[in-house]
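Hi U.,

Before I forget, here's the chain from the pilot set. I'm dumping it here mostly so it's searchable later in email.
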Amino acid sequence: MKKVIIFLCTFCISPFSMANADTLQSQLSAIHQAESIGISNIKAEQIRQDKIEARHRAKLARIVSQKRKQAEQSARLRHKKALEKQKRLDALHQEKVAERLADKYRDQEYQDKLRDLEFKSKMIAIQKESARAARENDFIDVELNRQKAKTDILQSEADATRNVSKGTQNLMESEGRAKEDANSGWFN
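Structure:
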């Protein structure tokens, strides 16, 4: 737009100069000069517009570069957060696996101790039975002696009862003879 105004101004000024000019040559020279000024003004305006556009392109390139850098930085941050989250999840998973394994080992250890205890109990029972079997004759002798002692006690009680009965019988017989002897005499 500026180019057109400059061109018109130059064109408007040129008729006034033509009136004063004597010759056609001077008029053509003035037109040529105005045309040169207009062209140089147009070129200057074009250069100025090119500089403005170059600044705009440079500014746009900087903005695009900044946006790209921000996007890359954001992507790196998201990737870093994702890695940290994955590490936390992996650590949590490892912790749970370790906890399950510890429970499993504790349970296995408990089962092993329980089997060991059962085994020892059975071994003690077997040893007890072995000792009992090895000393069975002693147990038999003790049992026989116990039964013999019971028999002796019963026999002693029977003998004592028999002796008391015999003593009572003898006493009664003696008393009976004594009464007979007392009654059989002269002075009775």
